[in-house]
Design goal:
mainly alpha, single chain
Length: 160
């Protein structure tokens, strides 16, 4: 089994990853919803709001933080060479994994708490209300942002 120092190192790494993934997720969510609202308001003929409001639910913390931390722990355990695979295969894997977590979280939050953090009922592209294939490019690219956090940023933060 693992020694105490190895367990401690893994716990610290997982904690730091959780915080980094959460910060990245909240930031991207804020930017994405803010830009989306600007575009929707412009198309609707509404005046520009210089405050640049955005919408981010605090439920995004476990959605992004836990999902990415768990996903990359599984990758480390079962696909340790994934980062050397061709970029397009990794991107497709990231996209499918993100959509899977998005579906599971949306279903769980609605079933257990009766809330909908996101709902794509208005989209003609939706799948089961919780998945919007329209965002596939966003999730494809976002997976690489998460990968960079794991591969490049985390080791530099934990270097000591």
């Amino acid at each position: 089994m693992y020694s105490w120092s190895t367990k401690r190192k893994i716990a610290i790494e997982m904690g730091v990853l959780f915080l980094l993934y959460t910060a990245l997720g909240i930031s991207v969510e804020a930017i994405f919803t803010g830009i989306g609202d600007i575009i929707r308001n412009e198309l609707a003929g509404n005046s520009f709001d210089p405050i640049l409001p955005c919408r981010v639910s605090l439920w995004i913390i476990p959605v992004y933080g836990l999902s990415a931390t768990i996903a990359f722990a599984i990758i480390d355990a079962y696909l340790p060479r994934l980062f050397s695979w061709p970029w397009w295969i990794r991107g497709l894997i990231y996209m499918v994994v993100i959509y899977s977590f998005e579906f599971v979280w949306a279903l769980a939050l609605e079933s257990l708490l009766g809330i909908q953090v996101w709902n794509y009922e208005d989209s003609e592209y939706r799948i089961w209300r919780y998945i919007n294939p329209y965002f596939c490019v966003v999730w494809f690219v976002f997976g690489f942002a998460l990968e960079k956090v794991k591969v490049y940023i985390l080791p530099r933060l934990l270097k000591s």
